[in-house]
């Protein structure tokens, strides 16, 4: 794990930038004046977007040195995000903060550092984020374990992170406004794992643990403020809510996805009184449902229910478009063509890839544990099911990084390809989660476009 992110001064001939990066020097501004600037190494475009609640509030152009600096005469304190396509990250502004960022797009999150007034809070939040990301990447096997092992492990991990949080809170002395986000980032990662365990364990092992859970296992739910509008778009909070709703049917005997998903919509409608939060959760439920259930009749009935409950007209348009894209991936249809290259950098066609029944899986260098696990499992399955090809598609931006990573491993029995246009891939193949797997027939038609290699029943699909 990266040690506490040190403050870095941006080397720049621009006097104002150097002044901002002198962390002990402040600006004597009145009102809510704030500064935002920095440097992007290996930029993907010439723009940085400052956003509030997922809405772009400013578009900032990089100069010839890939640096930028912007003064805001009135910037309300609170949580913002900055985006440099296709990545984004959070940034918290207190009154009169002057924040500079420095990052390399090749390692966006791991390279990001803050400097200037307000930097300590943001560097803390960044380090806690990285701890949580590392935790996600290394916890795949944990959900397979028995309840005692699972519970002991996550409790120990939470205690360590809470000690880190309390220490930095004392050292930095942040206010309640920032603590809302810091505490949620700490707690929601832990509580999300608690919500995930029952249904992920059942999915992965085909064994239910619901009867083994303590009676007070879900007592923490009573202490959560489900309708705090400040958390509407804060991803740790939204991720927890979405996971919690996926777990509400743990004690149900129903295995029907349609009925359970409609139940989630109804629970969300009754649980959330804040319209923004309710709409955000309804959107998430609907999006995930469309990825899992390819029954056209069910989809229409489900969307009718969603449109009845949602008041977010813009998101309704997006959901409708996604639903249409998913229909292009229905069983028996030809897999849409996307831009793929092999290790020699040559373009490959669907006809060249799908010469026999094929399992297509995805990976990124940003999730090392998943990359290793999925390749290991693919190698094992290839031996057991030689009638199937296994095609690995890397979705990183850099083909050089893809090749360098593969050179460090000895992955066998898989065809390694790279997607050169992720946005096109994401739209045509509806790639929204790294665990997604597609089963393609030898003639290039779709056998099943939405499965998981880690599904306990996965091998049944290969028969």
TrEMBL record:
It comes from the Bacteria. Residues 1-18 form the signal peptide. InterPro entries: Thioredoxin-like_fold, Thioredoxin-like_sf, Thioredoxin_domain. Pfam families: Thioredoxin_8. Residues 329-463 form the Thioredoxin domain. Coiled coil: none annotated. Keywords: Signal. SUPFAM superfamilies: Thioredoxin-like. This is Thioredoxin domain-containing protein. It comes from Flavobacterium humi.
